[in-house]
Amino acid sequence: MRPGAEALPMQGNWQVDELDASFGAVVRGLDLRELDAAAFESLYALWLIHALLVFPGQHLSQSEQVSFARRFGDLEFELAAISNVRGDGSLRPDDETDGVIQIIKGNMGWHADSTYMPIQAKGAVFTAHRTPPRGGETGWADMRAAYGALDQTMRKRVGGLSAYHSLAFSQAQIGHVHTKEPEDGSPSDPDAYNGYGFTDADPPLRPLVKVHPETGRPSLLIGRHAYGIPGLEPGESKRVLDELVEFACRSPRTYHHSWTAGDAVIWDNRCLLHRAMPWDMTQARVMYHTRIAGSPDSEFATPG
User: Fold this and answer.
1) I need a labelling partner for 158 at 20 to 30 A (CA). Which of 64, 98, 124, 218 fits?
2) 261 with 130: CB under 8 angstroms?
3) How confident is the model over 218-257, as pLDDT tens digits?
4) 79-133, pLDDT tens digit by residue?
5) Residue 191 in domain
6) In this structure, is residue 246 part of a structural domain?
7) 13: which residues sit within 8 A by CB, 6+ positions away?
8) Is the distance from CB of 119 to CB of 284 less than 8 angstroms?
């Protein structure tokens, strides 16, 4: 049992099974729609310990997902479809012409949400509605355990470094350059990527070591959006960041979830990275993402 979990008051018939990793747990025996205040308080404490909670068979509606996520704090946005299916039910083309597919493919690299925004996200609720027969898993990686596994020399070095974070940068690494909506009045594609996260503002500069505002535990803040460590040449900066991701995202610090329709998860974006895994895009995958807003007191980063 992980430190702290033994002190939590259990609610009803909850079954909590820790994942075979340094983090995460599967929780059964509860209905996320019907948590009273005491039960939610216990669930929140469980979340802070495990960072990722998996709830099989919840089958939340969109409004129920938003209501559940809102109990964790204000929302950065209520609901976004992460899907290769258009609004009319047709499949998106698996090529470089579709901005949504390009975002999905970019998200197959390890990252934390909204590090490229002025305020990094606190967490996210994610639900599965349609899943392909193979592939399409979601992976998470524990940056608390990764920081703890660094040798003293590297821990001291990264403790004094920061990196810029940019969605435009990370998408450019896979050849995706977002184009803005036409300004000449021509019809826009209602299913096109809405451009969230692409900005003309200077990118935020964030330290490579983050202290969790509620648990006090240090963790690495790295991933695909990070680049350009001040004081290092571009090549050296890339090498350091790539090596950190490669080191951090190894067993037992990773878990990949194979989805079943109806599953729901919530993760702590302040200490985990995540990524999507490839699947055959002739098969539908429909997921919904609700993003929990970070606190300006702990998640704000000024432009570099």
Assistant:
1) 124
2) yes
3) 999 999 999 999 999 999 999 999 999 999 999 999 999 9
4) 999 999 999 999 999 988 899 999 999 999 999 999 999 999 999 999 999 999 9
5) no
6) yes
7) 29
8) no
Q: Is 98 inside a domain boundary?
A: yes
Strand order, beta sheet including 162-165: 205-207, 162-165, 226-227
CATH of the domain at 82: 3.60.130.10
Nearest to 180 by CA among 194, 190, 166, 169: 194
Q: How many domains does the chain have?
A: 1
**Token pair for 154:** 């590297």
* Residue 21: partners with Cβ closer than 8 Å, 6 or more residues away: 142, 251, 252, 253, 254, 255
Token reading at 9: 């008051």
* H helix intervals, the chain: 37-50, 62-70, 99-106, 143-149, 152-158, 167-172, 234-248, 296-299
As given in the structure block, the two tokens for residue 35 are 């948590």
Task: Give residue 37's domain range.
Answer: 10-178+197-294
